Amino acid sequence: MRELWSKLGLEGKRALIVHHDDLGLSQAQNRAYRELGLPTGSVMMMGCCVGGLSGPDLGVHLTLTSGQDSLALRPMSAGKSLRNPQGFFWSSVEAAWQQLEPAEVEAELRAQIEAGLRAFDLTHIDSHMGALLRPDLAEIYLKLAREYRLPALVPANLETLSLPPSFLPALQKLSNSSALPQVVVVDGYGIPPQQRREWYLQSLSRLGPGVYQLIHHAATGDPEGHFLEDWPGRKADLEALKDPEVRRVIGGFEPLTWRAVREAWRRML
């Protein structure tokens, strides 16, 4: 994808997509998106708060897992392998990987993308909790990206993502042959909330030339958002991204959106 980054004038520069995950999940998440004024994010189409959400650079956060016991999300399609005994998505990636049937996953992904296309001018797709990084599911994910002409988040740093080692050869082969843009993922989700601001400052400051996606889950700290077990970290993301020093460091990068990537990539197809 060196040619793509060159066409965008990014070769030899530090470029950054600041990406807001889990939009549509709660009003606390959506309010943070509006407060930050950063354009890029992806929407969980089965979330309770998709209605009224708008923005210039939104994708679909393709979802196959709930992630938390307090967060019960239902699939948009009928596949039995997508559901736990209560009818919701499996709570963990590991549980989902043991059950998911590829044909049912493809039907679900199509349902989510089609819902997104009806709601937004979609700019990209990505994977909630990395559930689509099981190699056979990744193949479906990349196929749909090409079919719908939507760039998909393809991490260039797969080896840093705590995946089963047995997955890596197949995933690397898929990503190298996909002809899709690849970015280096920077994600501080596991950093304790009280250390989040410092993590942003240090992690971003030491990055060299390249194209990066900074993933965050910012949400306002009002009680409506507290149903999520990880709400302190989401509030810490919001506070860090509003911090003037963090904004100064982010300002040292070339700003990039998936909309710009989509348009340049489509011209190359």
SSE layout and pairing:
Layout (H helix, E strand, L loop, with lengths): L1 H6 L6 E10 L3 H10 L3 E4 L13 E6 L30 H7 L2 H18 L5 E3 L7 H14 L19 H10 L6 E4 L8 H10 L4 E7 L14 H12 L1 H7 L3 E2 L2 H11 L1
Parallel strand pairs: 1-2, 1-6, 1-7, 2-3, 3-4, 5-6
Helix pairs in contact: 4-5, 5-6, 7-8, 7-9
- State the helicity in percent bands: 25-40%
Order of helices and strands: HEHEEHHEHHEHEHHEH
Mean pLDDT figure: 96
Low-confidence blocks of residues: none
What fraction of residues sit in β-strands?
A: 5-15%
Number of helices: 10
Quantity of strands, as a count: 7
Structural class: alpha/beta
What summary fits the major beta sheet?
7 strands, parallel
The coarse silhouette is: globular
Work out the radius of gyration: 18 Å
How far is the N terminus from the C terminus? Answer: 12 Å
Key attributes of the depicted protein:
7 strands, 13% strand, alpha/beta, 269 residues, seven-stranded parallel beta sheet, 10 helices
Give an overview of the whole structure.
Helix content is 39%, strand content 13%. The protein has helices at 2-7, 27-36, 93-99, 102-119, 135-148, 168-177, 196-205, 231-242, 244-250, 258-268; strands at residues 14-23, 40-43, 57-62, 125-127, 184-187, 210-216, 254-255. The two termini are 12 Å apart. Helix 4 (102-119) runs parallel beside helix 5, helix 5 (135-148) runs parallel beside helix 6 and helix 7 (196-205) packs parallel to helix 9. Strands 1, 2, 3, 4, 5, 6 and 7 form a seven-stranded parallel sheet that branches. It contains ten helices and seven strands. The model has no long low-confidence stretch (mean pLDDT 96). It is an alpha/beta fold and 269 residues long. Strand 1 (14-23), helix 2 and strand 2 form a beta-alpha-beta unit. It is globular and about 50 Å long.
